Amino acid sequence: MKFLIFGCLVGASLIRPSAAAADSLTYTGLGSGAWVTLKLGGVTETGWAGEIKWTLNAGGVSTAVTTYCADLFDDAKNIQFGTLETTQALDSNPSLSHGALPNAGSKAAYLVNTNANTAHGSDTQAAGLQIAIWQAMFGNTFTVLSSTSNYNAIMAAAAGYGVPVGVSSIADYFDVTNSAITGSGANGQDQVLVGTPEPRTILLMVFPVVGLLGYRRRFRQVAARVSVGRLAFRN
Q1: DSSP per residue, 159-171
Q2: pTM score, whole prediction
Q3: Reduced to 3 states, what is the DSSP secondary structure of residue 148?
Q4: Cα-based distances in Å from 133 to 8, 170, 185, 226
Q5: Rounded to whole angstroms, how far apart are CA atoms 194 and 188?
Q6: Residue 43: strand pairing partners
Q7: Pairwise CA distance, residues 172 & 73, whole Å
Q8: Pick from 215, 185, 221: which is nearest to 97 by CA?
């Protein structure tokens, strides 16, 4: 039993989240989503709405990650350098994302945490989720033009992603910066990380559970043998 508890503690220490500093984030491609036409003030632009794929290098380890764009106003570059924080940091410092509304980080985190897995694999749903994130973070500061391909389906998908009042949620958040510059002056977009369990993490969680079940079964078998032995002794 002592070894089993020790194994559980080791597994928990390996899967616990840890902060990363001075990570490098390299763009590798686009996931599910669509190109949409936006009007921001008097400017009309075509941009990507949906998943973005990166390679994160932290502590000498490279990991493939997927994100949704959180900052509507900056231009993405191929190679980014920044700090892996949480969306809670955005709530306490809205200047991290230009023009962000109160609790913008919590809203973005809730939308990603709740809907990213179901939106994955659907271009329409992924694009709608991205638009819903922007709407929750920046309000009516932009318009999606009807000239966007598959406009009706994308906007219907966006309308299906709501944020409860008073929501409090946290997700990993890439504050992608150029030196110390943040917000509208940043050399890149802020990204909300999609938290998808990797196989190694799942296995680390499964092993202790299997061990506990095995120990429970063995305990019952021993208890049954002892009971039978006592009965035979009495007879």
Answers
A1: HT----TT-----
A2: 0.71
A3: coil
A4: 37, 14, 21, 61
A5: 18
A6: 40
A7: 20
A8: 185
Structure-block tokens of residue 205: 């969680």
SS3 state of residue 63: strand
Q: Which has the closest alpha carbon to 156: 124, 117, 121?
A: 124
What is the chain's length?
235
Per DSSP, 101 falls in state P
Contact 202, 220 (CB under 8 A): no
Q: State the residue for tokens 């949620």.
A: 169
pLDDT in tens, 99-144: 789 999 999 999 999 999 999 999 999 999 999 999 999 999 999 9
Structure-token match 């917000």, residue found: 183
Burial class of residue 62, CB neighbours in 10 A (0-12, 13-18, 19+): exposed
Per domain, the residue ranges of the chain are 18-196
